[in-house]
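Appendix B, example 12.
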Amino acid sequence: MPSTMDLERMLRDAELRVTRPRVAVLSAVYDHPHADTESLIGATRERLADVSHQAVYDGLRVLTSAGLIRRLQPTGSVARYEARVGDNHHHVVCRSCGVIVDVDCAVGYAPCLTAADDAGFQIDEAEVIYWGRCPACAAGRRPEPPHRK
């Protein structure tokens, strides 16, 4: 996990003003990969008790726009955030409990960026989501929530 000084440097390098809420939100995303907004509000408040909901929402928006964090929203799920940016990784989502795990690109050097037909686009990112059941759910160690589509 990056130190507070590292987080402040990341903000400066992205040409963002360093504020206590932004540092706290960025730290929360690093500490809680794939967390939803409500969870990140709670985690941010552990670091900065008086931060408002709006400051966290604004922080997430600004940090995402600056490329410091990544927003993902698997079908049927609320938005989630992660600090793993700058590579072309994907995600696997458990259909039963909703846990999300990072997975590296399928084979070789970002083969998923080579589309069968790129329609003239210069592709720089691919978003792949694998779906299945995590080991705990597959082994029956977690109760299944109501059916998800």
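The CA atoms of residues 65 and 124 lie 16 Å apart. The two ends are 35 Å apart (CA to CA).
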